[in-house]
Amino acid sequence: MQITRVERNGKAAGYRLENDRGMVVQIGTMGAAIERVELPGADKSRVNVCLNFADPADYAGNGLFAGAAVAPVAGRIAGSRFAIGNKIYPLTPNENGVTCLHGGKVNASFLEWTILQSCVRDGEAKVGLSLVLPEDLEGFPGNRIFSATYKLDQENRLTVDYSAVSDRDTYVDMTNHAYFNFTGNFGASALGQRLYVAAPSYMVSDEQNLPLALAPVDGTPFDYRKARILFDAFETDPQNAQIQKARGLDHAFDVRAAAAAGEVLAELCDPASGRGVRIKSPTGRCMVVYTGGFIDESFTLAGGVTSSEDCAVALECQSFPNAVNMPELEPKILRAGENYRHRIEYEFMF
User: Global pTM?
Assistant: First the structure.
């Protein structure tokens, strides 16, 4: 087990965590991002399966939110406003001039986090980071302190612990926005991967990709209770309005029952290589699955590959998007002085 400091321009820019089985996870300070996940092959060479920019500078303000810790709030907030009690908080609209996406224009994904610790202890390589977001940034109340801890163990588990405290009541819902393609070839479509999601229902969305209501997955391209190849699932109903609008999946799946039971919430794998990931979370309420339908050719990825539509899949374990405006979805209001905590466990297979 080892941990190695990554430097850029003479400054610490992150750490590489490596276990004794040859798996490597690289965490960057910009956005507290998971920058690389390298899995060993039979010949001992490593394959990176996490969407990774060739130029580290692209992590600053990247519209893909690639690998980033998303805060203060993951997903879209309708009308860029919410209320706590009788007070309404207007937010900065950063999508379509109407919606607040992932916390607004200035958010945790686009800022430099401070490294608090890095160590190898009790069979784990660990790095911890912190970020302060001030009162009224993008309209959110409270001076907030966010923390992110990433731990890699010998069983190929990456455990991500997010936490936050605030001096005022506020809205917090964090996630990680890593994209995966377990073929290791980001120049090819990721829709040949097989997806499992322990969800009996999914959130139907409107033209602005805002959630409308939960609907059963039975008989739809959204039923992944038995693992399915993504492309094949889409082809069962190619005219499905939800699939067409999102160019695939960009939907929240209800995984509350599986989370409460400690079960696997989602699994994504490449059938040919056997590489993949299983995700658990004791605090997750939904799994947002985004199959990359709106990824364009704006970025050069590691190895000189150009980003493209469907080149990777994001699995975002969080609470429901826009829950703050839909009380039936139990939004996570962080009360002043209390602690917000969210854990995501990634078990990688190779």
Answer: 0.97
